[in-house]
Amino acid sequence: MSTLLLITSAPSSIHAWHAFGLAQALQTKNQQFRVFFYQDGVSVANALQWVPDDQRNLTSEWQKLGIRLPVCVSAALARGITDQENAQRHHISSANLAQGFELVGLGELADAVQSAERLIQF
């Protein structure tokens, strides 16, 4: 069964951590899944976030999974997150997209929704 995890909660939310926990569990069980970061969930892709040493860093936890990490480009840009290509296109001084994350359009979310057998939003 393929699962789409639609992550719309900010990284500071317990819901964002639950999404990560489910992704870990699905990966451990070799179950097919995809993720998509949308709305406030895109903030996890901000490389400039600071996390205290005594707290887990959700960005690096996602990076450790070694999966594709698509992020809605419009939601990211609206929250000040960009890759180098979009920084140049929109005259933004520098890129801050965390390594391993990828800016994509909403068409990718539509494709993921169509191909998933279940969708879970966090």
TrEMBL record:
This protein's name: Sulfurtransferase complex subunit TusD
Record gene name: tusD
UniProt keywords, alphabetically: Cytoplasm, Transferase
Top-level division of the source organism's lineage: Bacteria
Pfam families (alphabetical): DsrE
NCBIfam families the UniProt entry points to: PRK00207.1 (NF001237), sulf_tusD_dsrE (TIGR03012)
Transferase among keywords: yes
Annotated GO CC locations: sulfurtransferase complex
Gene Ontology terms for molecular function: sulfur carrier activity; sulfurtransferase activity
Main localization of the protein described in the UniProt heading: cytoplasm
Family: Belongs to the DsrE/TusD family.
Subcellular location: Cytoplasm
Organism from which the protein derives: Acinetobacter lanii
GO biological process, one term: tRNA wobble position uridine thiolation
